[in-house]
Design the sequence.
């Protein structure tokens, strides 16, 4: 877990292998980050899981007391520095999200997203690059008023800036100046 990470309420990190989160990352609420399949892809393996779980419950043991993890596929998840994960996003096993990437709300990420890309959808796909325009405008042609926020563009140009115009809140992360 990196420095200056925000993880919103209701977000679940479910790990059998590894979930790595870089510095200055924002993960919104109700996200699921899941680095394994939970069960075998073969129906006989899943049936064994259910049988074991019922037996364990009846005998007062934890549900996963004797789970056979050898039949479950897993792979690490890596979320790079300054990434922004929108609300309700699901990130599945083996995914790397690059530095500065933005994942749109409700997306299901099944493949790597390179650095500085905006990606959306189910399955998640690249929509566009994060651009210099994004540092000047918070929405279409609406400029960020750096003076009103007590900031200057020059001191924030290396930051990840997230501005919620409705609430008038600025999130500024990863600044070096």
Sequence:
């Amino acid at each position: 877990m990196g420095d200056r990470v925000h993880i919103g309420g209701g977000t679940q990190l479910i790990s059998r292998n590894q979930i790595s989160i870089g510095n200055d990352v924002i993960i919104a609420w109700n996200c699921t980050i899941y680095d394994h399949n939970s069960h075998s892809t073969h129906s006989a393996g899943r049936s064994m899981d259910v049988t074991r779980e019922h037996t364990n419950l009846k005998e007062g043991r934890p549900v996963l007391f004797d789970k056979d993890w050898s039949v479950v596929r897993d792979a690490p998840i890596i979320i790079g520095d300054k990434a922004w994960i929108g609300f309700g996003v699901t990130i599945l096993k083996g995914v790397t999200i690059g530095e500065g990437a933005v994942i749109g709300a409700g997306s299901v990420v099944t493949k790597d997203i390179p650095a500085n890309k905006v990606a959306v959808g189910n399955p998640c796909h690249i929509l566009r690059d994060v651009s210099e325009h994004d540092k000047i405008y918070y929405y279409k042609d609406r400029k960020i008023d750096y003076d009103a926020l007590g900031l200057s563009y020059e001191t924030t140009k290396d930051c990840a800036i997230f501005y919620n115009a409705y609430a008038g809140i600025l999130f500024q992360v990863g600044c070096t100046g």
Remarks:
- Residues 43-58 form the longest helix (16 residues).
- The CA atoms of residues 116 and 130 lie 5 Å apart.
- The two ends are 23 Å apart (CA to CA).
